[in-house]
Design a protein that fits this description.
about 260 residues; mainly alpha
Length: about 260
Amino acid sequence: MQARRLPAIRGWNWIVEGFRLFRTNPALLTFLVFGYWLTLVFLNLVPLLGVVLAPLCVPALSVGVMNGCRALERETDGGFGLLFSGFGKNRNTLLVLGAAYLIGSLAVFAGSALVDGGALLGIMMAGQQPPDDLLESDQLIVALQVTLVLMVPVLMAFWFAPMLAAWNDLSAGKALFFSFVACARNWRPFVIYGLGVAFISAILPGIVLGIVGATSAPLAKMVAVAMSLPLLFVFVPSLFASFYVSYRDVFVAQVETADA
């Protein structure tokens, strides 16, 4: 398995090409992305088992969305049934990746517990309301910062792993390893990619709302609602498409179409 080392500007191109891919069939990609989210929401609602079932299914569901992106690029007839296509080929490996993601996430939040005594872990896993004194202190902010730092290597290991497992038939361990190495080799485009995503989704809307809010608070609320719709129904599906573009761009090996 070989990962290409790409120039920094490719990170921005992933966003642009993701939007182009979205434009080829907005309805299908929007359906896949929201179907992915709703499935995870319903799994999380399962008593006791939901907090385990949802992470286990994340890799397979994400492969379903990526299968849709690849079908759009190749102009093949995939259809809405692609949402659950990730549970076909290499299902067991993807479930192992889901278990590894759950363990990695728990380890990250356990690390944050050293700062806030487990408050953030309780919020994320059980929906516990943090005490007022914790909210007024800096502990929760520090815990969030620690969590973000610790999550970086976890995200690097899982960024490409589901696709490597589903499309390249790698074991869970090899998929995690090659994903981490590929991200490390391409840290420059990933930095530009992250900055681009932050600019489009947060910085630019914040600037617009700041300018409008300085003139009229009611108008600012209307503008906020107006901007949230394209962000939700255009940018988010395009962002998922950019995940696929980054995989296609980094890995030289051509992959066969995944079994439904």
